[in-house]
Structures are given as structure tokens and as C-alpha cells.
Specification:
It is built from five helices and no strands. It is globular, with a radius of gyration of 11 Å. The longest helix has 13 residues.
Length: about 70
Amino acid sequence: MIKHKPMTGKEYKAAIAQLGLSQQRAGLWLGLSKRTGQTYAEIGAPKQTAMLLRLMLKHGEMPEESKR
């Protein structure tokens, strides 16, 4: 079952790394400003972003950008 809770900064960085995204690419893909992406990496991501990343990890789905 997918957790419906925010991610810590450490969990966020690990998730985007597993998806093959740099912090910058993850921010672009998620539609975040550079500062918001940095904040997620430092203090964590909100529940909605965390749920999306956890679903992608669970189902092995990766953004097209990370496959290039």
C-alpha cells in the first residue's frame, strides 16, 4: 500500500535518484521552481508529491526524460 504522508528531504532525494532524475530534472518534471525543488530536497516534499513519487517507484514507471 502506498503511504499517504509527506517525504523527508532524504526520502525525496532517494526517490528521484532511483527514478534516474537529478534534482534539477525532477523539479522541471514536477513543475517546481528551482527554490521549491531545493526546499523539497532539504526539508521534504508534501503528501501529494510524495504519493506520486512512491507510485512511480512501486510500479517501475519513470519519466520519459530520465530514459534519455
